[in-house]
Give the backbone structure.
Amino acid sequence: MTFINYAAREINCKLVYYGPGLCGKTTNLQYIYDKTNPGAKGKLISLATETERTLFFDFLPLELGTIRGFKTRFHLYTVPGQVFYDASRKLILKGADGIIFVADSQQARMEANSESLRNLTDNLKLQALDIRTIPYVLQLNKRDVPGAVPVDVMLKALRIKGEEYIEAIAPRGVGVFETLKAAARHVLISLKKTA
Amino acid sequence: MPLTDTVMYEEQLGQINTVLTRLRSEANSRAAFLIDRNGQQIAATGEDLDQVDATALASLTAGNVASTDAIAKLIGEKAFSALVHEGDKDNLHISLVNDRIILVILFDERSSLGLVRLRVRKASGDLVHIFEVLDQRHAAEIARGAVNSSPFSEITDDDIDSLFA
């Protein structure tokens, strides 16, 4: 749910990184945080367990710049990937303007990817959102793991609507900003359509 | 754009700031914040505001309200309309203004929970009215096609590229 502040000439959008446990959602945010100019970012908030697994969400506010005289802010959230945190995931999807699905390229995680995607589809429905219409980008992360599942196989299993996909190695930043940019573009284009 | 989007116009923001400033003063509180349930800050007033990361406060409060709301439903309550967090020096009073807006009051020993509750109740009524007018205005602007002049209808690929230049 975009917040358009005509008084302050600001537009605020919410992007949610979704995906199975340990797929690299937090790593994406951490890389963006590390590489963003201090003036353009707020604090990176991580509500995590002692073992650094996301407990509730990570949050990073980013100011991307000005578009048509409006300051453009994106609030980036991750969900906890572990299956049993489903109640938390549902809450974080509330009001999402766009989704980035981070898939893990390891063969052993393909079933987890598919399960998480099904879970995303179901949880979006609960928020009256439709995965077929919400701005959505697929990131194929961990492309550097030995024996990474071929891209075409991953796309066949995980691509749902011909959406844009980006290959990534999040700890090294490969594909991280490209993914963010693609998602931001889709959200802004959706605003254009609905404005 | 769908009416579920939150918009804010100068006139209503001015009214909201007036209500928050009065509330802060009458409740003897340190600060007052108005945020939406998705964690976006709408307005804030108070002393030493630069000492508080208002963006993070808004996001975490929204998360807090969302999780408490889910807990309420688990035990068969519709919602918990107010939350209070007590610290050694500072306290937070968090309440729902309507189904989309959250009011947060930061107060210390110069005030009391009773006073904050009393003043919040009065201010919430004023805020509800402002948001009703805001929604009516937004709906009217959509109805008369005023949103055609929205800056976002003209966004180009170059505009978007420039954000990442």
User: Anything to note?
Assistant: The radius of gyration of chain B is 18 Å.
